[in-house]
Amino acid sequence: MSSQPLQIISTLRYDPSLPTVVRQRLGNAHTYPDPLLTPYYLLPYHQDRLRSAARYFNWDNASRFLEQDLTQFAQYLDSFIPQKGKCWRVRIVVDQSGGCKVESVAEPRIELENFLVPFIISPASTPWRVFVDIAYTTPSGLTTHKTTAREDYTAARGRAGIATPQDNAEVLLVNPRGEIMEGSITTPYFRRRDHARRDGPAWITPPLSSGGNAGTTRRYALVQGFCTEEVITIRDLIDGEFCLLSNGVRGFLLGKIILKPEV
């Protein structure tokens, strides 16, 4: 465990094209969960995620800071965006005292078709390599809520041989019951094996009871009916099968499960 004081975090994309794309793709935009149509991807869900974490850790001062309304919160974040016409990776860091630090890192401009449910993933997309961790991770509040305590995730990425955050690769964390929890930086989705015999979405994602993070894109996918929750074990995975991944900076991405060592 790090000796640094614990902080709660949420990371999202700032993209000045987002409001226009939402209007074009979703019409009246009622199905998109940001009534202000800010350039911050899924902003209300990120604020809710931080609020939930602050309540879990009994951080009263942080909770009071995060109770500001959405307009105020967006204006606060705006003060940390160096150039409004560019794209940024925005990392919101809140400490126990209610102090909030916002880090903005430039992101390349990309098409946003894969950010909005129903999303579009290009058939020409090169899938991310998706490995399964060889060690177990014990679920806790530090896996359900996103914090600066990232040692479990860093260790899992190291065991999978993922060298940098820029690698198009992911590793799935596994709890001691052999259930998939989540990815180290994404939420995973898998095709439902018995979909042809049952009603409901064709995709499933691990339930929070398996110990993974209550992510914002995960919430978006569930609310929009793209997927449902279902326990997924290592035994359920098939080498070479395609899956989907999502996070607040990259949207929804294509992945490919790799169970056998790459030659």
From TrEMBL:
Q: Name one GO molecular function term.
A: catalytic activity
Q: Which InterPro entries match?
A: Aminotrans_IV, Aminotransferase-like, BCAT-like_C, BCAT-like_N
The protein's name in its UniProt record: Aminodeoxychorismate lyase
What organism is the protein native to? Answer: Aspergillus mulundensis
Lineage of producing organism: Eukaryota, Fungi, Dikarya, Ascomycota, Pezizomycotina
